[in-house]
Amino acid sequence: MPKSYVRLTQPLVRDTKGGELRVATWDEALDRTVAGFRAALASRPGAERAPIGIFSCSKSTNEVNFAAQKLSRQVLGSNNIDSCNRT
């Protein structure tokens, strides 16, 4: 059965908000991801840090959900992770 979507094989980035997507290298895409996480973490006030949370998927493998909770706890410093197991 043919698929009705095109699978991405390389990262795409935007240079301006709302701009066109363009092909990027994996290094550039990951550097932008890191910069975005750092900016979000830096924008939280010092002593009263605003909570950060992430979503994972209950249909993902155990390994993917494990990696998501490690990212949330070790990198973002948050225990707020939801894997939508209630649905």
Radius of gyration: 16 Å
How many extended strands? 4
How many separate domains make up the residues?
2
**Residue runs with pLDDT of under 50 for 5 or more positions:** none
Shape: flat
Along the chain, the helix and strand elements come as EEHEHE
Share of helix among residues?
25-40%
Biggest pleated-sheet summary? 2 strands, antiparallel
Q: What is the spatial order of strands in the main beta sheet?
A: 1-2
Q: Please, what is the average pLDDT?
A: 84
Query: How many helices?
Result: 2
| Binned strand content | 5-15%
What structural class should be given to the helix and strand makeup? Answer: alpha+beta
Distance between the termini: 28 Å
Q: Quick gist of this model?
A:
By secondary structure, the chain is of the alpha+beta class.
What do you see in this structure?
Helices cover 36% and strands 14% of the residues. It has two helices and four strands, in the order E-E-H-E-H-E. The chain has a two-stranded antiparallel ribbon with strand order 1-2. The chain has a two-stranded parallel sheet with strand order 3-4. The longest helix has 17 residues, at 26-42. The radius of gyration is 16 Å and the shape is flat.
